[in-house]
Please model this.
Amino acid sequence: MKKAITILTITAMGAMIAGCGNQNTAQNSNRNESESSQQAANSQPVNSTSASSSSHHDEALWNNQKDEQLASFMEKWGPTMHQSYERYDGHNAIKVITGVTYPTDFSQEQVEGQAGLIGWAPTGKGDYEYNVVAIYNHDGTEPPENRITYFFAFHNGKPIVLVDQSTNGYPDCQPTHNSDLQSNFERIANQ
Model:
């Protein structure tokens, strides 16, 4: 009887040791898989990062060349409307006659009565519904105070020109009714 109990104890211990060994083998195998997948991820070519960043630049909807074309168009178009426009150059904010400063005060700007939809995004890709790539402002010289501020933007990847002529209350813009301005912005943006 003692012999049978000893044999059973030894057999049970052997099975437990064998099970632990298999578990360690499985853990080592899993560890090796994660290490090899991590090594595989780390061994990707270095230029794949630069390729993805260059493709990110290719995704820009707006660039300096288009911006210069728009500036040239606005220089010719403004006088046909008997107006001169100040251009936001990307560095020096534009302060309009009502005291609003762009692009700083985009947080106050509404689009057709809704706040938080518009912001400065020089490539046309940003976190806004309306990603503004250019700002032009004309302040009227005769009382009462008046201004015409155009925001050239991308909405869902499509070019749109918004205009704000508000003189009191919250600044509020809406799509322009000037088809010449809209069509020329589309033409430049789609090149």
